[in-house]
Amino acid sequence: MRRLIAMAAIALLSGGAFAAQNETQQPYADLQNREIKALSPERQDDLIAGRGAGFALAAELNGLPGPRHVLDMADEIDLKDDQRAEIQAIFDDMNTNAKVLGAELIAAEAKLDALFASGEATPDQVRTLTMDVAEIEAKLRATHLNAHLTTSPVLTQHQRMLYAQARGYGDGHAGHGAH
After folding, report:
1. Which of 68, 144, 159, 176 could staple 155 via S-S, CB 3.0–4.6 A?
2. Distance between CA 150 and CA 66 in Å, rounded?
3. What are phi and psi of 21, to 5 degrees?
């Protein structure tokens, strides 16, 4: 009986090892049917909608709240009507620009994907297109980061503390970037 259990354990473990080995050998197999190989559908949705998708973490996690989250938490942080209007304007401007840049980024990634799909990519073409992608992505990230930068001064120190607490950022201190 012990021998049977040991053999079953070995079979289970080796099956798991085979699955793990197969997974590491084929990590992208499920991605080959994407419309744009480098962009998941969820990432494309974020770009089209103008969502931050992590672009502004440097600001957010250093105590500079973003306009979308501030508006979502308006009651929790006691946002006044004049603050709400100012932050809504910051959000609208950021969102408009982010949607335009998001569409540009999707188009640039599609162009790069098409180049490789053609089978005729050259190093110079790749360099040019990847620089285009990087430039658009940098502009998009700056758009989101700058929205955090302009949102923070609209809030009081107490509101930034409430925001940090509500977002679960440690002891509620708003980080080094707080004003």
Report:
1. 159
2. 9
3. -65, -45
pLDDT digits (tens, 9 = 90+) for 122-145: 999 999 999 999 999 999 999 999
Residues 18 and 95: their CA atoms lie apart, in Å, by: 46
| Each residue's pLDDT tens digit, 39-68 | 999 999 999 999 988 999 999 999 999 999
Read off the tokens for 64. 């500079």
Tell me the C-alpha distance between 55 and 39, whole Å.
15
Q: Which two tokens stand for residue 115?
A: 């180049």
pLDDT, one tens digit per residue, over 3-44 is 545 444 444 445 555 455 555 678 887 777 778 889 999 999
C-alpha torsion angle, residues 123, 47, 54, 23 (rounded to 10)? -60
Name the maximum alpha-carbon separation found in the chain.
Answer: 76
